[in-house]
Amino acid sequence: MNFRSDNVSGIAPEILAAIAAANTGAAASYGADAITERVVRRVAELFEHEAAVFPVATGTAANALALASLTPVWGAIYCHEVSHIQTDECGAPEFFSGGAKLLPLPGADAKLAPVTVAAAMIEQGVVHHVQPAAISISQATEAGTLYRPEEIAALSTLARRHGLGLHMDGARFANAVAALGCRPAELTWRAGVDVLSLGATKNGALAAEAVVFFDPAKAAEFGFRRKRAGHLFSKMRFLSAQLEAYLADGLWLRHAEHANRMAARLSAGLAGLPGARLQHPTEANEVFIELPEAAIEALAAAGFGFYRWGGPASPCLRLVTAFDTREADVEAFIASARAAIPPAARKNS
Question: Which domain holds residue 295?
Answer without folding.
Answer: 251-348
